[in-house]
Amino acid sequence: MAPLPNTQIVPRNWQQFHRPTIQATFRSAVRISRLTDRQGTRDPVTGRTSFATPVPVYEGGARIQSRGGGATSRGPGGAAVGVNDRIITIGSYLVAIPTDADEVKVDDLILVLSCPDSPVLVGLGLKVVEVTYADIAWQRSLGCDLQEPSARG
User: Fold this and answer.
1) Which carries the bigger pLDDT value, residue 16 or residue 27?
2) Using an 8 Å Cβ cutoff, are 118 and 95 in contact?
3) The domain spanning residue 93 has which CATH number?
4) Does the predicted model carry a pTM greater than 0.85?
């Protein structure tokens, strides 16, 4: 049975009422930056390559959660190890930021500044591999993988 013609299924102020609830879950802080110079400039005298400083895209609240199966990295002999001597979940992560943040693109870099729910993630580098634009109205979801170490120098 269809509703009456003048019946509104979703109340008019629904978004304004629920937005603070979603944004209250952004308890972590991240810095998102973009590399503008991937090639770098090589100095023929010193033999070193210099790269431009990454451009900041967003810094602020976020929600971070593991999308992996909970596996941890294992070192020789089966000892649990992780990034910078921390045990972390191997696999992808989902980082949610507010939709009013600047546009984030694939290959942008995320540095976890704080994460009260999982302090072991602080200082972790992530790389954006997926940007979901069709999400709920108050967040932009970013699929991320661990950032691979760079041999820049």
Assistant:
1) 27
2) no
3) 2.40.10
4) no
